[in-house]
Amino acid sequence: MGMTMAEKILAKASDKSVVEAGEIVMANIDVAMTHDLTGPLSVESFEKIGVEDVWDPEKIVVVFDHQVPADSLDAVGNHMIMRKFVEEQKINNFYDVREGVCHQVLPEKGHVVPGEVIVGTDSHTCTHGALGAFSTGIGSTDMAMVFATGKLWFKIPETIKFDITGKLKDNVFAKDVVLNIIGKVGADGATYKACEFGGEVTSAMSISDRMVMCNMAIEMGGKTGLVEPDQKTINYLKGRTTKNYEIMKTDNDAESLETVHINVDDLEPQIACPHNVDNVKPVSEVEGTHIDQIFLGSCTNGRISDLRTAAKIMKGKEVARGVRMLVIPASREIYTKALDEGLLRTFVDAGALVCNPCCGPCLGGHVGLIGPGEVSLSTSNRNFKGRQGSPEAEVYLSSAAVAAASAVTGKITDPK
Fold it and tell me: Has 299 been labeled as part of a binding site?
């Protein structure tokens, strides 16, 4: 009997030849990531264990991204705690306030390769499955155990494979595909399952688009998101990493495999409406909804392809009167590309605010919060009540194309 990609990766990590869904294993961790917001609790828990040194400083990555530059004394304190920890533990893979969002920085800097087990104290760590790794979010106290031992318990998940076929229309993107899937499956429809994305549509997607899909696996309850590595994966890794890696793929006869068929021929842009990510409607049903703020960025849609798409729509136009638009590239690498290509000038000329690479308003803890009664249209991944500021505000989620078109009109707009 065959195994799924998730099963194969966790079998290798736990020194087993075969594992089954539901089995509990102790797996070796290849990469452990934490950031400025959740890191301090991990450090505090690690110190309580009483172990002086982390298991392997070269396998720990620390990224400052949630509150950068520091916007409060609490944020400053968190940064100081993590800088002290990094220095004491001799952690070389430390990306201070300049590099950008952790889920973009890790693959850019070569920390993500196929076949590895990656954990992070952030629920959207599942993003890295786009490169064929088993990557998942864990709690800060679990991370303390990883710091100390380099191992963690896992229950082997079942796998849902989304076989995505058809041809995307103009102005329909990966974000629309995954929102549509989440709307169908529901917020808890894939709880603790590996969400694997396949089919001709996924194969045609860029690595950036695959990252969008895997990033949002958690929004339907998934343990991780996965895409089988292919030549695009190999090409992406060239020049980014010197790691050896093993490509693993799902066997069609795997016992725990469930396949769901999705056709996108007739798919139009999708909108996640307040206050749940699975409250998804086609843009035609919510067109004309007034908005106060546009957020173009985040670990979901702050990549260069998103900025190019938005700039093409907005070039020569202006952000609608009464609307605030924040453009936040996901990393310094993306920021500099956008700068070189003149994309940032397009946004500035249109009246948008271009901010430093960071999480921005995504978590409601930094720049660009929204007030009571206000409406945000965001390219990020969550729209829970209070997510981007006031609990009396509303957040809608969309692709970069819908966000750009809506910025110009001041209301939710189909980019066609």
Answer: yes
